[in-house]
Amino acid sequence: MSSLLKPNGDDYPDAAAKHLADAKALLGDSRFDGAAYLAGYVVECSLKSILQVQNGVATRGHRLVSLATEVAKASTSATAVTAKYLTPTVQNLPSASIVGWRPDMR
Hints:
This protein is mainly alpha-helical. The chain has 4 helices and no strands.
């Protein structure tokens, strides 16, 4: 459980860590589809964690490009506590192959 646990039970940092551990286990077993699927959730939960820290709330939904755009906007404000997370990886997410990821791909 992280310090960002919400009253409704959502805990994006904790979920990201669990999905990452599971993705690594699947990758180690050469189960690439499952690993990639869970990696999408890692990215989503990580972006939502950044938004929650910066804005106090995280956007609902699974659209990675929209989430990355929101993170970029939030991280460039004068009062941004999350600016350190605006890395080239986050900035280039809209052109990454993972942007086509969505939960219904299972």
